[in-house]
Amino acid sequence: MAAVLDSFVKRCTAALEDFAGQEACAALGIRDNVRGLLATLARIDAIVAHEEQRRVLSSRADTWVAQLKDAMYEIDDVLDVCAAEGAKILAEDHPPAPKVRCAFMFSCFRSSGPQKFHHEIGFTIRDIDIRLREIEDEMPTPPAGSVNPGSKRDWFFSDDNHFCRSCSDAAKPRAIGTQVQKSVGGLVPRMLREGKKKVDLFAVVGAAGIGKTMLAREIYTDERMTENFPICMWVRMSKDLSELAFLKKIITGAGVNVGDTENKEELLGLLSSALSKRFLIILDDLDSPAIWDDLLKDPLGDGVARGRILITTRDEEVATSLNAIVHHVDKMDTENSWALLREQVLPECSSEEIEALEDVGIKIAEKCEGHPLAIKVIAGVLRSRGTSKAEWEMVLKSDAWSMRPFLQEVPQALYLSYVDLPSKLKECFLHCSLYPEECPIRRFDLVRHWIAESLVDASENKSLEESAEVYYAELIGRNLLKPDPDNLDQCWITHDLLRSLARFLITDESILIDGQQSASMCPFSSLSKPRHLALCNMENSLEDPISVKQQMSLRSLMLFNSPNVRVIDDLLLESAPCLRVLDLSKTAIEALPKSIGKLLHLRYLNLDGTQVREIPSSVGFLVNLQTLSLQGCQGLQRLPWSISALQELRCLHLEGTSLRYVPKGVGELRHLNHLSGLIIGNDNNDRGGCDLDDLKALSELRLLHIERLDRATTSGAAALANKPFLKVLHLSEQAPLIEEEEGNQEGTEKEKHEAVVDSAKVSEKIWNELTPPPSIENLVIKNYKGRKFPNWMTGPKLSTSFPNLVSLDLDNCMSCTTLPALGRLNQLQSLQISNADSIVTIGSEFLGTTVMSKATSFPKLEVLKLKNMKKLENWSLTAEESQTLLPCLKSLHIQFCTKLKGLPEGLKHVALSDLRIDGAHSLTEIKDLPKLSDELHLKDNRALLRISNLPMLQSLTIDDCSKLKHVSGLDTVEHLRLVFPPSTETFFFEELVIFWSIAFPRWLELLIHKRNALRRFELECTLPLLRSCLDGGKNWHVVQQIPEVRITSTDGKRYIRYNKGRRMYETNAQSEE
């Protein structure tokens, strides 16, 4: 069911109708055959549209369904062949426009002349038509008066920010309900209580989807746990996790490098030493006690540290066999169920709206039977219906609540959430289940997989990729996918039960093989025509993972977690002619077979991170290829000239390669919308490299990364013209070769200066001719050698030239002496300036305001970063009373600006949340920032003497600021963290008074004595200073005044933990060893 039937039939019908109107169809002389097939499909479509949902609800497996799918797949393949052959005939009839072709590309037909081919393809189409009519006779007849249910309602994301909003919102913590809060409140104190055992085990037991993982996550992130356990790690106990992989996760999670170790005994030895501090290990979804008995029990028992292990499991016998302290997770009651549903669906609604929906909402919550997962996915369904009570009533009365379940452990709500999806989204969601459960799903790859499988509808005002992003956002909004909170560019299927449901629904088409063991979605030998093959943890060569007969029908082949695969068998590709998706990324493959060119239908080829050194010229025969990704192929030095034949290519990813040049033909690929790592010009004796004027025809680009602009020989005036959709633009010259510059002593100083000036003039000329379009949202300028920024960045109409610019990164513009008037950029939200070595002063020119101007400078800027500006001494932010500066700035980072003497006075008017200053060795004072609220982080500021008048500051971190002498005016600081490296501990004061490394600086004692706001104090220091803080030690009188204290030695081995309110005092620092 990976191909949802009603969607598949509609897709094939639309493609066939489109082909029937093309010249290629007429050239082949098969238009009558195609029209006959269309008539049959129209009748079948009407039946399928009525039958599809009924089949899902009744879980019937009708024989005609498989036959119809086979026919649809055949139509899909035949259309590719017809389009290619028709284009070939038209090209021959209208020279001169010869395209690269090969005799073997139409391998499904015998080599023959045009007339014979016309006869054969016509016969094939008629044969499909006959079989479809036979299938039609077996299909049920729709009841009289039935109507086509039509398409589903619109999705709830309608604006251009749908993707960012849905991902960021879904990654935020959600309300957990009072039952979970009570459980956390009961379990955490028990886990903190010291017992007789060195390692105590706790178990959260409950049914699937009942909220075990949610409870464990709340415990894992509880501040009391992170405070008491320096080592915390979470291990998802998937069925595919081997013993070696498990041990490596634990050891690396403790911060120890395992290297290339593959020996179990060596890893067990490392485990004891790795857990040298108090630890908390979560083993999520454990189904066997063997992990504890065979791998953890002895090493942890012999270790030096005490710890806690919390498991979640569906099987109480597992918890019992471990002698764990058991906590049962019960179903949520109606009140908590409705509260969770309300928070998920109506977080910003008025009390009147909530009251209007409460009665039906409670009934829906009751149908979820207390399962948090069921409530979350139903919340996704309801969000798509808005706040209409009639729509909620429809969900309540849905037939899916009473359908016979395929899998007994899956709640009915999950079936409803699937049934409610539009057909296109059903297919997209099912495709996600091809990923192994331990592998994150990368958004960039996933949306292009969908496009390659033709699962995405074209739209008049959106590219296929943009439409696919909408699909992705919808699945996240429906809680079927969840974004990774640490990386919003990847996601996971929300729960194992959803993965189990999806995999069940694609068992008739898909195979997953793990490590050459048949841990597949179904007994793969029974599948006569698998369409998708996912291989995980494979070794060495890739030879016949399934039978040759089965390979013939494959449409996608993906490898995961297989870094040792070095060879892909030539026969494998030759026996899989229908492949559309081929993902070999992160393997050790060194070469592609030449037979790659036989894959006429291939649309997606991913070789990221492989050891490929050369792309065979036969790749030019992949006339349907849409995505070619070569990111991180460090051994790749050249691309074949035949790449210009890939006229359907939409994405070419070349970053991180060793390419010397990119063939000119890339400029002829008019469908490209993503082009990264494009190298301009030629290297040494190479000729025919792509130049700037070769880009003028690429009008569909959304993203463009250009490198080696210094090698441009043609005018760039037209390079960025006619790019109305371009949003992301990276422009870069070659980085300066510092070693060569230092070692080059030839020539006089005058000659060297003249060479630098000439280089700057050439750079300025090239860049001035480029004019980025107004559609740009993200701009990166890197390694620019000019002395003045390009004209298009310095003109008075900067705001109108870049009306949509949100993010700007200026990196390594080493010769520019002044910054442009960037304050005029009205939409700019993020600005980073790095390695601007010639800038000494930042003044009013940066703001873009004048004395007479009333404009706001940087009206939307939220993040500003200044990094590695070696000569920057002065920075001023001055404005007239009528002017406003940086009204939205929340985060300011200043890093390694070693000569900066002071912060601009104008910052006192800015409501900063976060200020970080690292390596500002000339900065002596930080003062008068009355609106700085959340955090000040200071590190390695060697001249800093004074901090004063920060009346709203909540958190202060001081790391290696050895001369700091005065701290005052910090009335609201609640959290103070200090790091005193051994080299600075004895030099707290200018007088160099040595306290034998056991004295606090005077300002700290005064801060603690005078201020009542301080709630938490963290200190990292050497062992003598730590021991001075022990109960009865020289500094104990300071420590005992603070509600929470955590002190660790520099090496992390010794600690003191003190909590005044809980009367907790723990240490392992009393021993002299």
TrEMBL record:
Keywords linked to the UniProt accession: Coiled coil, Leucine-rich repeat, Nucleotide-binding, Plant defense, Repeat
Coiled coil in keyword set: yes
UniProt cross-references to SUPFAM superfamilies, sorted A to Z: L domain-like, P-loop containing nucleoside triphosphate hydrolases
InterPro entries for the chain: Apaf_helical, Disease_R_plants, LRR_dom_sf, LRR_R13L4/SHOC2-like, NB-ARC, P-loop_NTPase, Rx_N, WH-like_DNA-bd_sf
Domain spans labelled Disease resistance protein winged helix: 434-502
Domain NB-ARC as annotated: residue spans: 190-347
Repeat recorded as keyword: yes
Residues covered by the Disease resistance R13L4/SHOC-2-like LRR domain: 554-899
GO BP, sorted A to Z: defense response to bacterium; innate immune response-activating signaling pathway; plant-type hypersensitive response
Recorded GO MF terms: ADP binding
Ranges of residues in domain Disease resistance N-terminal: 8-87
Superkingdom to which the source organism belongs: Eukaryota
Family listed: Belongs to the disease resistance NB-LRR family.
Name this protein carries in UniProt: AAA+ ATPase domain-containing protein
Source organism (scientific name): Brachypodium distachyon (Purple false brome)
